[in-house]
Amino acid sequence: MTDMEKTTLTASEVDRLVGDRIRRRRILMGLTQDQLGESLGISYQQIQKYETGANRGSAGRLYLIASRLEVAPGWVFDPVTSDASSEDYDELGASSLV
């Protein structure tokens, strides 16, 4: 099995993974969906849709979100590389990520 075969994801799965990374980083920075949305000129509902994977963000929008969250744009796509440790995620608790 090649590396490509091991990492084959659907577009919807990628959307959910990207949204999850955005949500986790937002929470780690202490921002609400409303605060992030306001800083980007969009509604908190739109942030919520990005975070759940219901809506896909354009390349430009993902660039702006990453910039506001103080990470490189590629960070949202790479589940291995993170500015936060697993301990940071544990501190958040499952209810904080909903």
Describe, in plain words, how this protein is organized in 3D.
The chain has helices spanning 3-6, 11-28, 33-40, 44-52, 59-68, 86-92. The relative contact order is 0.16. Helix 3 (33-40) crosses helix 4. Helix content is 57%, strand content 0%. It has 98 residues and is an all-alpha fold.
How do the strands and helices of this protein lay out in sequence?
Layout lengths: L2 H4 L4 H18 L4 H8 L3 H9 L6 H10 L17 H7 L6
Strand content: under 5%
Major sheet: size, sense and barrel closure? Answer: none
Structural class: mainly alpha
Distance between the termini: 35 Å
Number of helices: 6
Q: What coarse outline follows from CA principal-axis ratios?
A: globular
Order of helices and strands: HHHHHH
Low-confidence parts lasting 5 or more residues at pLDDT below 50? 81-98
Mean pLDDT: 82
Q: In which range does the helix fraction lie?
A: 55-70%
**Number of strand elements:** 0
If you compute it from the alpha carbons, what radius of gyration comes out, rounded to the nearest whole angstrom?
A: 14 Å
Features:
6 helices, 98 residues, disordered C terminus, mainly alpha
What is this structure, in a nutshell?
The protein has six helices and no strands. With 98 residues, the chain is an all-alpha fold.
